[in-house]
């Protein structure tokens, strides 16, 4: 996720988990019952969440196709997120008015969302799609830890179970007796893991930065990704040669990708705002299904039994995380 489901810019999968209330010492999540929403009112929010999952389960493929014609993943990422900023330019007046309130939280949001997107794209380009994506989806573990540190949120038995399931899933998936510890096996897998950590951190920071508007947080995603990608691209070199090989059809693809990245930011945010968290989490898991199918047919990548077992544990942790944070009350301190 990328990359896309970041703090309010597309990847907002974890943000819905970080709702908590105040108690005497720390914030504690409480599960409450949530009534069923009429189905007609759910059509558009469901469509918004599923559109985000669909896009991020497929977007690795056009990035790979661009790389095949000589456009590196870093250059394609820079161009698409700059174009997303252009498409979302109508938000600039609102963002400019809030500039005096940016502070350190805005900086942290820009950096964390930027690396989440860049690391996700680079990992998906050079690694096995499903292994990188599953490592990215260890994000529930990091969300719980970061929310305890930044938001003062206390873990209950579900929180510890989520951590255990996620780590067991990663160990099952990554275990190679001949290689020792069950760690990511290559740079792409490390990128996926670090992008998931950054994704989780960005969502906790977004929750903490409640004074910033949705428009400002969305803009921070595109700005952060472009800002981190540019120095990396300059370090790689060969920018002129890569730009020279971009054909009209490739530019059309980049323009479309930028528009899609801009649009799903708002579609996903609309969905998250109008669905209970446990429903949103289940819908976001649709990305795993799309990525598994697309990687099989488009990249001839198939997962073995061990990978499927690890995936089942990680998905179970994600679903349980949805239960933990989905239907929480906010108990504001009484005056």
Explained architecture:
With 335 residues, this protein is an all-alpha fold. The chain has one domain. 70% of the residues lie in helices and 3% in strands. The protein has 15 helices and five strands. The strands form two sheets. It has a three-stranded mixed β-sheet. Strands 1-2 form a two-stranded parallel ribbon. Strand 3 and strand 4 form a beta hairpin. Helix 3 runs antiparallel to helix 10, helix 5 packs antiparallel against helix 6 and helix 6 runs parallel beside helix 9. The chain is globular. The N terminus and C terminus are likely disordered.
List the topology elements.
Layout: E1 4-5, E2 11-12, E3 21-22, E4 27-28, H1 39-58, H2 60-68, H3 73-87, H4 92-97, H5 103-126, H6 129-136, H7 139-151, E5 153-154, H8 157-174, H9 187-208, H10 214-236, H11 239-244, H12 248-274, H13 277-284, H14 286-299, H15 305-326
Parallel strand pairs: 1-2, 4-5
Antiparallel strand pairs: 3-4
Helix pairs in contact: 1-12, 1-14, 3-10, 3-12, 5-6, 5-9, 5-10, 6-9, 6-14, 7-9, 8-15, 13-15
Summarize the structure.
The chain has helices at 39-58, 60-68, 73-87, 92-97, 103-126, 129-136, 139-151, 157-174, 187-208, 214-236, 239-244, 248-274, 277-284, 286-299, 305-326; strands at residues 4-5, 11-12, 21-22, 27-28, 153-154. By secondary structure, the protein is mostly helical. The strands form 2 sheets. Strands 3-4-5 form a 3-stranded mixed beta sheet. A two-stranded parallel sheet has the order 1-2.
